[in-house]
């Protein structure tokens, strides 16, 4: 355990990459998921079927498998494109690959969350907005979207934590995040327990902070309880 202490800073520095990948992937999942949920509840048949198919497919794929598909698939596509236009070979970074994979896959879960959150909004509130003369756009932006995000807050908080944990899979494609650095230190010191214990503590700290933030947002939005 003591042999790991000199490498403590090296492991902790990987936390910036872990958190960065999580935030970018989560933001992308929110954006894509919100778009998908809009298509699913829309009146156009083809976009609705396409969005529903997207959700079904990406909820079924294992996260690690999809990280490999994105990383190697995009690498092949970018090299083929570079060769076609006569440029030097292009490579996709592990960070870009994992954030794209996280955003695309967890967008399927976010779409279901947003759809359920939209369904939970009382129809009377929407009718009240229309009755006082609000346009369709204002009803969506001032009533539907705020209430939808309030209803979705607990589930989205859980999705963020899942993405945080799944981001450790990026180590298999060489991303220098916490888990990858802990593995490097474990190989150097021959003390895997100490290195991975430090990585575990890093994840626990970020999870605790994210959970506290989620609870704060829930209290501020008065989600099913009185404001403290």
How far the N terminus sits from the C terminus, by CA atoms, comes to 43 Å
What is the H-and-E element order? HHHHHHHH
Q: In what range is the share of β-strand residues?
A: under 5%
Report the uncertain regions. 223-228
CATH homologous superfamily identity of the domain at 17-175: MetI-like
Question: Under the CATH scheme, which architecture of the domain at 17-175 would be assigned?
Answer: Orthogonal Bundle
Overall shape: it is flat
Output the structural class.
mainly alpha
CATH third-tier fold name of the domain at 17-175? MetI-like fold
Any idea what the radius of gyration is? Answer: 21 Å
- DSSP strand count: 0
Summarize the biggest pleated sheet: none
Kindly provide the name of the CATH class of the domain at 17-175: Mainly Alpha
Total of DSSP H or I helical runs spanning 4+ residues: 8
What is the residue-mean pLDDT, rounded to a whole number?
Answer: 87
> Helix coverage percent of residues?
over 70%
